[in-house]
Structure formats: structure tokens, C-alpha cells
Amino acid sequence: MRSATLSEPDGTRPAAVGKLLRETTWTRFDSASAFAAALQDPGYRTAVGVDADASVKTGSRRASALMGTGLVLASVFAAWGWLRPTAGGSGAVRMIPIALPNLPAVQSAPSIPPSGDHLVFQANGRLWVQRLDALSVRELPGTEGGVNPFWSPDSRWISFFNRRTVLKVPLDAGDPVTITTMPLECAPPSCGGSWTGDGHVLVSSGAGAVLRAPEGGGTAEVLIEPEPAEHFHVATWLPGGAVVVVVDPDEAPGRLE
User: Fold this and answer.
1) By residue range, what is the domain housing residue 157?
2) CA torsion angle for 224, 230, 234, 237 (degrees, to 10)?
3) Do 143 and 223 fall into the same domain?
4) What is the chain's pLDDT, residue by residue, as a tens digit (257 residues)?
5) What is the pTM of this model?
6) Domain membership flag for residue 240
């Protein structure tokens, strides 16, 4: 299997997104359409930089503001990745407003299902879901302590971790159901999972092997074992049966396999 060394985004990152990083607010663009236009404009490539000293000086005062902003910025990067023009495409950009609740502790980036009509995120020690055509969010009952959510292929279930337990909860209504129990506790944000196309769920605690368990519940088996002094983080199933794993060696750069 091919591997690729992970690295920070290079200077080709759109300056429109860079501007959001520097200013940490949507209001630095006059409108959503202005941001969309900047994303599509090849000439919009001004320098992107961050004043580290200024960040340190104002860090304590801005910590709570950045907590909520982080989720917005994660949405920006996700939206840019999905909506950016492709070769031979029309180049149209669809801007989707996402209204976050007034929660003091947003703890994860949003996860969007294959259907593309919802998002789920972790805040205040539980999971919340929002329709993308609505401006309100709702708590998913029974998800207290839940972290790192990920969706089923049919977008009807949301899986998540609670310490060593991997669970799933229906999007519409219902109580969580246990899928499996891992030998190690989930270590956010490194733990992660992915549903496969053959009735299984792949999970990793972030400090051990990639495990495979029946989506209906059952004992997990080791699918991929890491080398000594290495740890597997998020494992993602790809159509066709391939699995991409984030590998974190103790004394080397991380990589994808």
C-alpha cells in the first residue's frame, strides 16, 4: 500500500480562507457571496500570515471566542474541500449557513453524512445534530460522554465513542446501541472510526490496532496491527475495500497508509 508523509498546508491555500484564519470572523467579508467569489478568484492570493506574539498577548481574553470559532473554521475548510471547482466543472459554489448554538464548549469539528443534509458535532460532553436547511440544533439523547462521531453509509445512524465502548444512535429517534468494546479507551482526538460497505465498522482507539466489528454488535477483531513504537489513529474505509490509516510513530513524522 502506498504511504504519504503528512505535512502542513502549503502556500497554495486560498487566501480567502487564510483571511478567515487571520480575522477569525465571517464579518471580515462583506457577505457570504463575497467569500464565495474570493474562493473562485484565481487572483485572490494575498499573503497569509499569523502574528504569533499578538496571539499570545491576547490568548487568555480570546480563548472562549476561539472555542466557537474553531468549529466555524473547520466548517470552512470542509466546505472548501467539497465545494471547490473541479477540473472541467462549472465552478459553482453553494454557501450553506450553519448556526451554532450558544454552547461554551464546542469540542469537535462537524461531521457531515453521505446524504449531505445534516451535521453532527460534540459539545458540552454530548452530541448535537442539525439539519443544514434549519437554524436550530438538537441534542442526541443518551450520548453523554460521547466523542468523535461518524456516520453510517445510509446516513441513518451516528456512531461514537464513550471510553472503551463504540456505540451507534439513530438520527431520527431512539436510544444508543452498543456495537463493540475496545481493549483500550478512546483517546480524543486520535480515536476514530468508519463504516464499511459490508456490514462492519472499523475503529481505532488512537493508541493501538485497527479493529473490525459487526455493525449490528459483537466482538471486535484485529484488522491491522501497528508496528512496534507506532500507533494507529483514524481508519477510513474506501469503496473497493481499501483502508486508509493515520499512522503515528513515536519518533518519526506521521503518515498515511
Assistant:
1) 118-256
2) -30
3) yes
4) 333 333 334 443 444 444 444 443 334 445 445 555 555 565 554 433 333 333 333 333 333 333 343 444 344 434 434 444 444 445 566 666 666 666 656 667 788 999 989 989 888 888 999 888 887 889 999 999 999 999 999 999 999 999 999 999 999 989 999 999 998 888 777 788 899 988 999 988 878 888 899 999 999 999 888 778 777 777 788 888 777 777 776 665 555 56
5) 0.61
6) yes
49 shares its domain with 170: no
Which strands sit side by side in the sheet containing 210-214, from one edge to the other?
A: 192-195, 200-204, 210-214, 221-224
Are 146 and 36 in the same domain? no
Contacts of 98 by beta carbon, 8 Å cutoff, 6+ apart: 72, 75, 110, 119, 130, 132
Tally the domains of the chain.
2
